[in-house]
Design a protein that fits this description.
Length: 311
C-alpha cells in the first residue's frame, strides 16, 4: 500500500517582553497531547490514479471516476501493459495494440467464412440469394458484376437489416475499441470490415452490395458498440459480476465483446482483471496531531499536525 503523507508543521515564535516588562515565572514544560483520530474506511477514493507505463501521478481532472485504476497501483499486478479499461473513460484516448487487432481480424475473417457457409445452406427466401442463377456464372466474374452494379437498396428481412447487421457492426467496433482504439479509430475499423470485407467482399459473390447494410452496420453498429464499451467497463469494474454473479458477468461481457472475450479466455485476460479487482487495496484515512507549549524555550510555542492518507 502506497502512502501519501502530508506533514504540516507550523512554528510560531513568541516574542519576548522588552526590558523592564513583567516577566513570567519559570515554568516546567507542559505537554498536552491530542489523542489520535482514526476515521472509518472511506467508500471511495476522492482522487484517481492515472497509470502511464510504470509512472504513477495524481490527477485531479479524473476525480469523478474512482474505479478505473485503483487496482493498478500495485505494480506486481501487471503482467501486461495497461489497457483503456484501466483508465477513466475517454472517447479520444488511444492505446493501440496492433498485434491484438490483427488477431481479432483473423478471427472475424474465419467467422465471416463460417457465416457465409451457413447462409449458403439457408433457404433462398431467407437470404434472397438465387443460388441457381449464381451457379451459372463463374465465381469471380459474378463478384465483379455485383460490385459494378452496387450499391442498391436490398429487400432483405427486417431481422437481417436492422438487428443482425447492427449487432455485427457493434462486434466489429468492439474488436478495435478493446484493443485500445478510440471512438473514431474503432468507427473506421467497423466501416472497413463491414464494407470492404463483407459487403464488397464475401457477400458480393452472391448478391449486389446493399446501401442500407453499409450505413446501418457501420453507423448504428458503432453507436451500439460504444454502448457495449460502457457496459463492459462497468462489468470489469465490478470484477465480472452482475447482481453478484460472475456467470452473468461472463455472458454479458461475451455478448458485448465476443471476439476479445473469446481470445481473452486463452490469454487469461479475465483472470487478470478479476485478480486485480479482488486484490485492489481499499481506501483508508487517519489523522493525528498535538501541540507543546513551552514559554521558557527559545522557540516559544510549537504546533504540529500530521495527516496520513492511504489508498
Amino acid at each position: 500500500m502506497r502512502r501519501i503523507t502530508v506533514i504540516l508543521t507550523v512554528m510560531i515564535s513568541a516574542v519576548y517582553l522588552a526590558a523592564g516588562a513583567v516577566s513570567l515565572p519559570t515554568l516546567t514544560e507542559i505537554s498536552i497531547p491530542t489523542p489520535s483520530i482514526s476515521l472509518p474506511q472511506a467508500p471511495k477514493v476522492p482522487q484517481t490514479l492515472v497509470i502511464h507505463q510504470a509512472s504513477i501521478t495524481n490527477d485531479d481532472a479524473g476525480a469523478d471516476d474512482t474505479t478505473e485504476a485503483t487496482s493498478a497501483a500495485t505494480e506486481g499486478c501487471w503482467s501486461k501493459k495497461p489497457s483503456l479499461y484501466d483508465y477513466p473513460y475517454s472517447p479520444t484516448r488511444s492505446m493501440r495494440d496492433w498485434n491484438r487487432l490483427w488477431a481479432n481480424t483473423a478471427v472475424l475473417m474465419g467467422g465471416g467464412l463460417t457465416a457465409l457457409g451457413i447462409l449458403e445452406l439457408l433457404p433462398q427466401e431467407s437470404t434472397a440469394w438465387n443460388s441457381h442463377e449464381n451457379g451459372k456464372t463463374p465465381l469471380f466474374k459474378r463478384w465483379l458484376r455485383h460490385v459494378k452494379e452496387g450499391p442498391v437498396w436490398d429487400g432483405d428481412k427486417f431481422i437481417f437489416n436492422f438487428v443482425l447487421h447492427p449487432y455485427a457492426g457493434a462486434a466489429y467496433y468492439m474488436s478495435a475499441r478493446s484493443c485500445g482504439f478510440n471512438y473514431w479509430g474503432s468507427f473506421v475499423y467497423c466501416f472497413c470490415i463491414s464494407t470492404f470485407f463483407w459487403e464488397y467482399g464475401f457477400e458480393a459473390f452472391n448478391e449486389i452490395p446493399s446501401a442500407q447494410d453499409i450505413v446501418v452496420t457501420s453507423v448504428v453498429g458503432s453507436i451500439m458498440g460504444e454502448a457495449f464499451y460502457h457496459a463492459k467497463r462497468h462489468i470489469m469494474a465490478n470484477g465480472y459480476r452482475i447482481f453478484g454473479s460472475r456467470a452473468l458477468g461472463y455472458v454479458a461481457a461475451f455478448f458485448c465483446d465476443p471476439v476479445n472475450e473469446v481470445l481473452g479466455y486463452f490469454r487469461g485476460d479475465q483472470h487478470r482483471a478479476i485478480r486485480r479487482f479482488d486484490g485492489a487495496p481499499r481506501s483508508m484515512a487517519s489523522a493525528s496531531g498535538g501541540f507543546v507549549f513551552n514559554p521558557t524555550s527559545r522557540t516559544g510555542m510549537r504546533y504540529g499536525l500530521t495527516l496520513t492518507y492511504s489508498f
